[in-house]
Amino acid sequence: MIGATRQIEITIRTINQPALMGKLIAITVSCGAEVLAASSYWEGDSTVVKLVTEDARRTVSALQAAGFDCRANPVVLVETPDKPGLPEFLSDKLVGAGINVLYTYSFRSDRELNYVVFKTTDDERAIYVLEVEALIHDLAAARSWRRSGAILHAA
Asked: How far apart are the C-alpha atoms of 111 and 114, rounded to whole Å?
């Protein structure tokens, strides 16, 4: 895991439209904001799209100018290596720490980065748990504590 941060997720709810995701991504990119994660699903006769971008304020302004109704909510965004099962593993860590995970989704960007989005009941604590998990993993993966070329002297 590379890192966990608090981000803003933009939710757009609209009637079903052909190529809606493409339109939303095009609007987002045209305002200069990179899409970090995206998810969509149907709810009745509506389409719900969730976007996490590098500039939520600019993205919301552009989407509203294009006539879309947007809602913004905090989420936890985790940049991860591409490992099958890792989102479930991280979710289990959060649940094991007593943090309710309301929903999660993962997204692979064009730059070959992988992101997992968590909506939890305690985002600050979730970030802490995920960062500690990353530190433990990094320490366990270290092959040697000795710096190359370092010589230890007894005092």
From this structure: 9
